[in-house]
Amino acid sequence: MSKLVSFFGQKVKVINLGIPSFAEDLKKQGVEVMHTEWRPPAGGNKKIQALLAKVEAWQSKVKAGKGAR
Amino acid sequence: MLIDIQEANAKALAAIQAAQPIIKGIDTAINVVPGMKKNLILHAGPPITWAKMSGPLKGAVIGGLIYEGLAANPAEAEKLAASSQIEYSPWHEHDGVGPMAGVATASMPVWIVENKTNGRKTFCTLNEGLGKVLRYGAFSDEVITRLKWMEKTLAPVLKAAIPLAAEINLKNMIAQALQMGDEVHNRNKAATSMLIRELAAAITKTSFSQEEKARVLEFMHSNDHFFLNLSMPAAKVMLQAAEWIEGSTIVTTMCRNGTEFGIRVAGLKDRWFTGPAQIVQGLLFPGFEEKDCNPDIGDSAITETCGLGGFSMAAAPAIVKFVGGTVSDAMNFTRKMYEITDGESQSFQIPAMDFRGSPTGINLLKVCEKNILPQINTGIAHKDAGVGQVGAGLVNPPMKCFEDALEAYVEKYCQN
Hints:
The complex is a heterodimer.
Chain A: H1 2-9, E1 13-17, H2 20-28, E2 32-36, H3 46-68
Parallel strand pairs in A: 1-2
Chain B: H1 5-18, E1 21-28, H2 29-32, E2 40-43, H3 55-67, H4 74-82, E3 87-90, E4 109-115, E5 121-125, H5 141-161, H6 170-179, H7 189-205, H8 210-221, H9 228-240, E6 251-257, E7 260-265, E8 273-276, E9 281-284, E10 297-298, H10 302-305, H11 320-323, H12 327-337, E11 341-350, E12 356-362, H13 364-370, E13 376-381, E14 389-395, H14 399-413
Parallel strand pairs in B: 2-3
Antiparallel strand pairs in B: 1-4, 4-5, 6-7, 6-10, 7-8, 9-14, 11-12, 13-14
C-alpha cells in the first residue's frame, strides 16, 4: 500500500504506444511523455495476419531444416 | 521447398545494386522491342482491354493509330481500336516502360538502355514535353506533328550523337541528380541539364543541319522532364536484374493503366496482382477540379519501385511546389519507406539525410505486416481523351495488390 501511495506522489512519466493524440494531450498538461509508433500487425487485417503466420511457420521449418543439415 | 526468404531477397537486392544502366542508343520500336509488330499497341500498367481503358489511355491509343497511319481520323481510329485487328499489351511484358498512358506503336523511336552487368536491355519512348501530349491522352494535329518531328529529326540526331559522346552511365547521372534536388520522377531538371551537357558537343558534331541541331537542343532545353524517359528505363533495367529470383518477396514492378494498379513480385514470375487505380491528391492547374482527374496512370512508378521518386522525395524538397505537401512531408515519406524496404541504395544518396542511401527493395511481407503502402508522386491526366495534364500530386497503390500477391505467395511456397 505504501508503494502505491509513493507512486502517486511521484512525477508521472509516460510511454505512449499507438495513438499520437494521447501523447499530445498529456504534453499539453506538462506531463513528460515519450511517444512510440505502434500499429497492430497488418493493420488488424485478420486474413493478412493469417497469411503472414503461414509464411513465418514455413520459414521456421526452413531454418530448422538448414540447421539440421 | 528449402528457400530462405532473407537469402532470396538479399540476392535480389544485390542484383539491383550491381546493375549499371547505360544509354546504348536509339532505334525504331519495331526493330528492337521484343514482340513488337505493326498492329500491336504497348501501354502502361497491367493488361487491359479497349473496353476497360480510361479516357487518357483511349485518347493515346487513338493518337497512336493516327500517328502510325492505321487510321485517318479519331472516329476511324476509335472503330479500329475496338476491333480485333488491334492488339494490346503492357510495356512491362516487352522489357519496357511508358510514362502516363505509355502508348507506343511500331514506328516510334525508343531509347535503348542496357544493364552492362548482365547485358539485358530496356526500352522507352522519347519524352514529348508537358501539356497537350500523347502520353496524357491528347491526339490533336499538334500532338501528331510533334511526334512525327521526334521520329524524323529528334531521334535521328540523338541516335547519331550518342556514339560520338562518352558513354552515359544513367546510374551515375541519377546519383548526381539526387545531389542536385531531383528525385527523377516528377523533378528531372538537374538530370535533363546534365544530359544536355553530355550530349551537346556530340550533337554539334553530327552531320545534320544547324537548324535541326539547334531545334533538338532547344527541345531538350524546353522540357524539364526530358530525362524522365531515361530514369524510367534505368530503374526498370535495374529491377529486371531481380526477376524472377525464386522465393524472393521483393517487388519488381508497380504500374498503372488508369483503371487498375498492378504489381509483380520477384518470386512470383510474370503474375500480375491488381486493384483499382486511386485518385491522385495534389495541385491542379488553374481551371481544373478534382472531378476532372483520371485515376492514377503510368509506368513511372517504376522509379519508386527502384527507390527513387516518392521514395527519394527528401532529396527533392522543391518538388512539393509541384506535387503538393510540405518539405517535412517529403522528408517523412522517405523515412517511412525505409520501413517497407530491405536495403539502402549504394548509389543513390540523400544529402539532407546525411547521405543515407535511398530506401530500396520493397518487401511484400513488410508492406503487408506494417500496413504501410509505397508512396508515389505523379502527374495527373484529365479523365477525358484529348485534354492532357491537369496537375500533379501524391498517391498510393491499393492494398489489394499486395494482399493478393501475399496469398499467391503462400499458395506457391507455404503448402507443406
